Amino acid sequence: MTTTSPRAGLPVTDERTIDDAAAEDYAQQVRDEGWVVVPDAIDLRLADAIYEDLLRLERDLGIVPADNLFEGLHTTRIYNLLVHGPIYERIPVHPNVLPIVEKVLDPGLLISSLSSIAIGPDESAQPIHSDDQLIPLPKPHPPIICNTMWAITDFTEENGATRLCPGTHLADHSPDPLGSYESIPAEMSKGSVLVWVGSLWHGGGSNRTEARRVGMAMNYCAGYIRQQENQQLGIPVDIARRFPRRLQELCGYSIYNGLIGHIDKEHPGKFVFGADEAAELVWDYARVEDLQ
Ligand SMILES: O=C(O)CCC(=O)C(=O)O
To answer: Which atom of ligand 1 approaches the CA of 131 most closely?
Structure first.
C-alpha cells in the first residue's frame, strides 16, 4: 500500500514503472548515443514538492548566482542537497532512474554530486564540456561517470534545456571550453529525466523566457573513482546514519569489488555507524584454511 505524506498528497514511496528490460533499453541508448530521455520518470507531485523546497532553501541559505560563466551569472545552484531533508534522499535511489545508471556503470556506483540548477531569465548558454574532461584518461574510455538531469519544470529550447552534442561520447578528446559546437536541446516535460554518459559533450542552454528552468543534477560515478562532492565529509555522520542502507552505500559507505573503500579491513558502515556489516574482502577468497 502506498501511503501519502502531508506534503500536498505526495506518496512517501516512489513507484517503479519501468521494468528491467526497459531499463536495459534505456541503458543501451546511453551506450550507443551517449544520452536518453526517460519520459514521465518522476511523479509530478514529487517534482512540484522539490520545486517548492528549493525556493525555501534558496531563501534560507541566501543562495545567489555565482560569478563565473560555467555556473552561470543568472543561475542559482544549491550543492550537497542530501543534508537538506528527506525529500532529497529519494533522488539518488529513484527506482525509475538508478537501475538504468547501474547498467551503464555497474551496481558498485557512487553518488558523485547532487545539486539543483535553476537557469534564470537572460542566462546565456553554458560552455560546452564533458563531465569527465578533468580525468586524465585517454578517450574514448568505458563509462566512469553517468549523470542525470531531472526536469523539475518543463525543459524547452527557449528556457535553457540542456544542449547535447550526440555521438561525442565516442570522440578521442574533450571539447574546448571556448569552442562553439553544433548541439540539440534535450527538450522534455516536467517529471522526465535526461541520462547521459560523462564523456558526452553538453552544456546548459540559454534562457530566453521570463521563467526559470529548474533541474536536479543527480550525478553518479563508478565506485573506483573519486566523487566530485565529498559525500563522507559533506554529510554529517548523524544524518548519514539514518539513511536507508542503499543510500549509505551510494554515499561511499560501501566496498567496491571487495577491496576499494575498506577501513583497516573493516566495512566502512561498521567502522563509522557501528552497523552490523562484515567486510567481505577479496583477500578472503584465498584464505589459507580454505585452500587446505
Ligand atoms: O544545466 C544544465 O542543463 C547542464 C549543466 C551542466 O552540464 C553542468 O553544470 O555541468
So the answer is: 10
C-alpha 162 – ligand 1 centre gap (Å): 7
CA–CA distance, 140 with 240 (Å, rounded to integer): 35
- Those residues of the chain that have pLDDT short of 70 are 1-8, 288, 290-292
Going by alpha carbons, the residue nearest to atom 9 of ligand 1 is 71
The closest-lying atom of ligand 1 relative to the alpha carbon of residue 203 is 7
- Residues whose beta carbon lies within 6 Å of some atom of ligand 1: 117, 126, 149, 162, 202-204, 215
Distance between CA atoms of 107 and 166, rounded to whole angstroms? 26
Q: Residues 67-120: pLDDT tens digits?
A: 999 999 999 999 999 999 999 999 999 999 999 999 999 999 999 999 999 999
Taking the whole predicted model, whether its pTM rises above 0.85 is answered as yes
The domain segmentation of the chain, as residue ranges, is: 20-251
Nearest residue by C-alpha to atom 4 in ligand 1: 204
Burial of 264 (0-12, 13-18, 19+ CB in 10 A): exposed
**Ligand 1, atom 2: closest residue by C-alpha:** 204
CA–CA gap between residue 93 and residue 132 (Å, rounded): 22
- Superfamily covering domain 20-251: q2cbj1_9rhob like domain (2.60.120.620)
